[in-house]
Description:
By secondary structure, the chain is α/β, with parallel strands linked by helices. The chain has a single domain (about 5-280), classed as Acetylglutamate kinase-like (Carbamate kinase). The protein contains ten helices and eleven strands. The protein has helices spanning about 5-10, 20-25, 35-50, 60-70, 80-105, 135-140, 165-180, 210-215, 230-240, 255-260; strands spanning about 15-20, 55-60, 110-115, 120-125, 125-130, 145-150, 150-155, 160-165, 180-190, 245-250, 270. The strands form three sheets. It has a seven-stranded mixed sheet, sandwiched between helices. Strands 4-5 form a two-stranded antiparallel sheet. The longest helix is centred in the first third of the chain and has 27 residues, at about 80-105. The protein is globular and about 50 Å long. Residues about 220-225 and about 280-283 have low confidence and may be disordered.
Amino acid sequence: MSTSSEAMSASIEVVLVKLGGSLITDKRRPETARIEVIERLARELEEIGQDGVRLILGHGSGSFGHVAAARYGIHEGVRAPEQMLGVTETQDRAATLHRMVMGALCQRGVPAFSLSPSSFLVSAGGASAELWIEALIGALRLGMLPVVYGDVVMDRELGASIVSTESVFLALAGELQRRGFVVRRSIWLGETDGIYDSRGVTIEELQLDSVEDVLDQIVGASGTDVTGGMRHRLQTVARLASLGVESWIVNGLEPGVLGRILKGSRGKGTKVPAAASQSSPTS
């Protein structure tokens, strides 16, 4: 990359924002979107805009893609001919919810740019292996809002596999950092007040060296979830912390929480600071 491109990238700070599947859908009822939540979040994103910090928005598949993927066992790879239709159905269901999110953003005048992971990422053994992000970078530089989501991608070992929004974010964070971008933080909007301890009380700040202890206490996801729910999210947050990215896990049902965190306020939820040795000197 040229020196001028590096300088341009270094001046762009990026925040990763995920709208959890449990937030924007009812995961206990197949293909049931929470339209009023999606529309409110779109309105909040309109108010936040893209000044200064650039956002990359991701969302889960909730009761759309997860149900189809579980029915065909897509999360375990694609080996049998009858699973191929499952790939199609899972992609279609995930894309249906994605179109709802994009439609809400469009209605609010948010300049969103849709990116399906299957078009820019391949995996190997279920883990991201290679990605091409020129289109995403172009959208960031234009001041648009790239929007990604959980998808089915081609897999070099499994034929095809599920890639979660968490996995997409982790791959993007590493690649953007390699290209000179500053990935400042990640914000995870779900339907709980962060991570709870054994007493059911929100852990306000969770250090990286304590994550493993907390993981042992987390039970499975509510509803159908083929990617691991909160446990997978916390594992991803721990890996982001090791890359120097702080994270917030908060309740997206609380109006305005995203804007408050972006402005530096401490919302009710769990903060996972970046690992000290990896923190950016400009943090």
